[in-house]
Specification:
Elements: H1 2-31, H2 35-39, E1 42-45, E2 50-54, E3 60-64, E4 72-81, E5 93-104, E6 107-112, E7 117-118, E8 136-146, E9 153-156, H3 158-161, E10 183-184, E11 190-197, E12 200-210, E13 227-238, E14 257-258, E15 261-262, E16 274-275
Length: 283
């Protein structure tokens, strides 16, 4: 009888331990992975945006600090190598603008801001400054980890970088006569290099375009028109805070300008075009 009681007690204890383990497992899963655990096998490139690259898979993560959410930054893109047939040649500036990162629950949106219009803040019309004007959500990335204390968040950016979300390189009308890049092949495209500095972060991407039905018409610079590689350097640059004063364009002077329209003006020429110029200061 005593032996049976001991066996019964042992069975109850074992069942209790198993039950506790089953309850603990979901609790551990609910905690999720941390920024440190996800990036522990990665090389870190600290800077404006801290970038991480996994040493085994090459996966790229980007850390966004809490105070960077909603902040605007400058975006530029330059061709590092390409072919003239595609209209993408070495040194060509192929993209620029102002972007921001916006959080929406469990994901981060990369948004291209619209600065084509001006509204006088003293005008009642300024209350409708966002009416019939659309910003562009270029990409959406899921948040994979978050630091509860600092508010910093980590996102995986491979899919975003290896797409044409940031910049459309392929021309739907084709490049040179008889030549067409075809479609982007994300399986062949890759992130070549990451660099990050205190005021900017750079991504060098090799985009590979496939066109199985490519015909003739490409120059000798195109090894095989069925597969063409174009390398682009994307830069995210911290918005500078200085005493730069914009200069408005004058039609009597030939300058390169950014077009801005004053939608609160009653003038027949409501122009506030801004001259492209350097910010130079005497040392």
């Amino acid at each position: 009888m005593e032996l049976k009681l001991k066996l019964l007690a042992g069975a109850v204890m074992a069942a209790t331990l198993v039950g506790c383990q089953d309850e603990a497992a979901p609790a551990a899963e609910e905690q999720g992975e941390t920024i440190a655990s996800i990036t522990e096998n990665s090389d870190a490139h600290e800077g404006y945006f801290t970038l991480y690259r996994d040493r085994d898979s090459g996966a790229v993560h980007m850390l966004i600090k809490a105070d960077q959410i909603g902040e605007e930054f400058i975006y530029t893109a330059q061709v590092d190598n390409g072919v003239v047939d595609a209209g993408a040649f070495v040194g060509a500036y192929v993209g620029n603008g102002v972007l921001s990162t916006q959080r929406y629950y469990d994901r981060v949106e990369f948004v291209a801001e619209n600065f084509s219009f001006y509204f006088d803040p003293e005008s009642e019309l300024a209350r409708a400054s966002h009416a019939n004007i659309s910003d562009a959500i270029l990409g959406v990335q899921e948040i994979v980890a978050e630091d509860d204390e600092s508010g910093d968040i980590l996102i995986k950016v491979d899919d975003f970088l290896l797409s044409e979300n940031l910049l459309q390189i392929s021309n739907p009308n084709g490049g040179g006569e008889g030549f067409s890049l075809g479609g982007l092949d994300s399986s062949k495209s890759k992130v070549l290099e990451l660099r990050s500095y205190p005021e900017n972060s750079d991504f060098e991407i090799e985009y590979v375009y496939s066109n199985p039905a490519a015909g003739y018409g490409a120059s000798a610079a195109v090894t095989d028109p069925r597969s063409v590689s174009i390398r682009v350097l994307h830069s995210f640059i911290d918005m500078p805070e200085n005493n730069y004063q914009p200069r408005f364009a004058d039609a009597r002077v030939g300058t390169f300008n950014t077009q801005v329209t004053d939608l609160t003006s009653t003038s027949s020429t409501p122009y506030r075009d801004l001259v492209h110029r350097w910010h130079l200061e005497k040392q």
